[in-house]
TrEMBL record:
Residue ranges annotated for the DnaJ homologue subfamily C GRV2/DNAJC13 N-terminal domain, each copy included: 14-483
Entry-linked Pfam families: RME-8_N
Domain of life (superkingdom): Eukaryota
Name of the protein in its database record: DnaJ homolog subfamily C member 13
InterPro entries in alphabetical order: GRV2/DNAJC13, GRV2/DNAJC13_N
A GO cellular component annotation in the UniProt record: endosome membrane
Natural source organism: Clonorchis sinensis (Chinese liver fluke)
Example of a GO biological process term: endosome organization
């Protein structure tokens, strides 16, 4: 049942979990929003429970593991009602660290907020060897880098994205944070680095059930300089194309000039005067390219680990075309260009992972027959959020008496998309549709005062994205040619 007090809730993160109770185990969608937590029936998208953060006492990992479900890790959500009576609900997920991380982003709004995290003075060693005074704080989900004057968070190094953490052996007070994946290194100087490492390790284990690792061998200052941008070889730093851009960053009040360099496997940012590399990102970790429809020079690059970078360029479209070609040439076939940011609140699993056969089948059935109270256009957005741009991963009917006929599901989904009336004729969708357009839609009495051309373009774009995902499979292409 929906709570009236959460009518303005915006869902930011979504996970397919298993709810465990004395009645049995049930698959549920667990969404984490701006005002509270909601669970849905995954097959009907009906709300089964909803709790504002004022009723959440806390959430913690549960070390219990079932022998028949070793891949599922448990977490316990503690709730309290108006009479301060506590109840505990147990969920299981293969993405427990991600669920807990996103849940604890809102820990300050809980009924029993955690105590403030201690902050220590530190010095950040930058790409040019220039040092900057900052504050470091080990929080339940990350090591935060803060501005010493305003106290604002400049950068959060999430524990789930840290490969290992250790001292720099030949730098007094040196602390190295090595990120997962590419192995980028961030170096700080603090009075007692071991205390920071201990505090971070205890927080990660207590709040997330995650064991932070130390470096397999001593980290030296020379090692940090050599592999500051990760483990790429010198050949991987050779540019294939370069573009001058303005980068939007929290550290500066105005955009910073950068040279965006596309190599065979990396996207590098260089300092234009010195041509020194500032930072780099693997092309294989780019998730989506967002081409802003309102501002003609603005674009955003979204990464699979949740980061996004915003730039401005006078040569934006050429840059995006070159980057798209490079990303696909690197082996990343799931990247696409869209006009609005991706909506993580619609996706059943982290962007780092691919959707399961169950998730793909559910969304194909949604296209064929929308759940009660859900518009076709929301279903379409959910389909695009969960199915890879390169196409369905499970498009062939499996052997078995009760196997689902995937070819028929795909054909029915294609037919539903192609026979759907234009979005401008569907006035029921505008009050409920999430994430349409770059600006909120102006609604009145459940209808739009004047049809927003941008919103209709976004919905039309969603149709083409869905068609692309369906016809990328052999079954989808055959069905498309027969319709």
């Amino acid at each position: 049942m929906r709570r009236p007090s959460m009518s303005q809730n915006v869902e930011l993160y979504c996970y397919l979990v298993t709810k465990i109770s004395w009645k049995g185990s049930y698959k549920r969608l667990l969404t984490i929003g701006t005002m509270g937590v909601t669970t849905y029936n995954k097959d009907t998208l009906r709300v089964t429970n909803q709790w504002p953060y004022s009723e959440v006492c806390g959430v913690r990992p549960d070390p219990t593991v079932k022998n028949n479900q070793p891949h599922l890790q448990r977490l316990i959500l503690t709730l309290c009602d108006a009479n301060r009576k506590r109840t505990e609900m147990t969920f299981a997920s293969e993405y427990r660290v991600d669920v807990l991380t996103d849940f604890l982003r809102f820990r300050t709004r809980f009924a029993e907020p955690s105590s403030p995290n201690p902050r220590v003075d530190a010095v950040k060693v930058g790409w040019s060897e220039r040092t900057t005074n900052v504050l470091l704080s080990a929080t339940p989900i990350s090591i935060d880098q803060l501005d010493p004057i305003s106290g604002n968070v400049i950068k959060s190094y999430l524990y789930r994205n840290i490969d290992h953490l250790d001292v720099v052996s030949d730098l007094p007070g040196g602390l190295a944070i090595v990120q997962s994946g590419f192995g980028r290194i961030h170096v700080f100087v603090v009075r007692n680095p071991e205390a920071i490492i201990k505090a971070a390790s205890e927080c990660a284990l207590s709040y997330l059930g995650l064991q932070l690792r130390r470096a397999p061998k001593p980290i030296t200052r020379d090692y940090c300089r050599e592999f500051r941008l990760g483990t790429a070889s010198e050949e991987e730093f050779i540019s294939q194309a370069e573009f001058v851009v303005q980068k939007v960053t929290l550290r500066q009040s105005t955009p910073v000039s950068r040279l965006l360099c596309i190599t065979d496997s990396l996207l590098l940012e260089r300092d234009p005067p010195s041509y020194r590399a500032v930072c780099g990102y693997p092309l294989c970790e780019i998730y989506t390219l967002v081409r802003d429809r309102v501002q003609p020079q603005r674009f955003v690059i979204e990464y699979v680990r949740g980061e996004s970078k915003t730039y401005f360029s006078t040569d934006r479209d050429t840059l995006l075309a070159s980057l798209l070609d490079a990303v696909r040439a690197s082996g990343n076939r799931d990247v696409c260009v869209r006009s609005t940011p991706s909506n993580r609140g619609l996706r059943f699993c982290p962007t780092m992972t691919s959707a399961s056969e169950e998730v793909e089948s559910v969304h194909l059935r949604f296209l064929r027959q929308q759940p009660e109270g859900i518009s076709f256009w929301e279903v379409l957005q959910r389909f695009n959020a969960n199915v890879a741009y390169s196409g369905l991963l499970h498009a062939v009917t499996q052997d078995g008496v009760f196997a689902e006929n995937k070819e028929k599901l795909i054909k029915d989904a294609l037919s539903a998309i192609l026979t759907q009336p234009a979005p401008g004729l569907d006035t029921s969708l505008f009050t409920t549709l999430p994430g349409v357009g770059s600006r909120p839609m102006d609604t009145k009495r459940g209808q739009v005062k004047h049809a927003d051309p941008d919103a209709q373009l976004v919905l039309l774009e969603a149709q083409f994205h869905a068609l692309r995902r369906l016809v990328a499979s052999k079954a989808g292409f055959n069905a498309f040619t027969q319709l």
